[in-house]
Known about the structure:
The protein contains eleven helices and ten strands. The chain has helices spanning 46-54, 76-81, 99-106, 110-114, 116-126, 128-132, 143-155, 173-190, 201-207, 225-230, 232-237, and strands spanning 6-17, 20-31, 35-39, 61-66, 69-70, 84-87, 161-165, 193-197, 210-215, 218-223. Strand 4 and strand 5 form a beta hairpin.
Amino acid sequence: MSGTHVMLDIKNLSVAYGGLRALTDVNLTVAEGQFVTVVGPNGAGKSTLFKAISGIVPPVSGGIAFQGQDLLARSPSERAHLGIAHVPEGRQVFKTLTVRENLEMGAYPKSGQAAWARTIDRIHTLFPILAERANQMAGTLSGGEQQMVAIGRGLACAPRLLMLDEPSMGLAPAVADTIFERISQIHREDGVTILLVEQRAVEALELSDHGYVLETGHIVLDGPYETLLTDDRVRRSYLGLTDA
């Protein structure tokens, strides 16, 4: 299923904000075609990890390679052209633009422009409501629909790696389930490599090939879902499971 070719390789990554360590010596790899999830409490550094990958925050030390290229030597805009899509937390849609214009904004990398006809079809297949609401202002949509726009915008650049930051945040459980199902579909059917940061640990880990547990800026555990499920600390802290 997942190739052995490493797509994203993070080595000894440390990031500081205003002198405070947000990430310390983080090591994480994502193989091509894999679905990898990072779970952990609020403030553990999950969003910071994504911001370092997409170039929003500079690391203090460590390295990030994508397809064998040094990402830290690339500007944030160049990183999008390499095939990295970052769907940030909080559904950051352009509220005064239409749904269609929002999706078009995601297609600016060369890969997105070349594949536009195919990707817009695919986005509409995954999220039919976005076809129905194409000319509606994105700000008038429900939270779940805005999240669909945000994911659609990520897909519009025809990414090799789709990074999703807390896609279920603030959504009703049934809506979050739909979003997770679509993300899983994008992975299974389109072969897009996925890196997901998520509070809803059980659902997220169930979808993934490999999970990392991040606590106070450190990776404290990683492994396949089955391994994480059997770890007592993970069961108590993240999965809300107590031994029967």
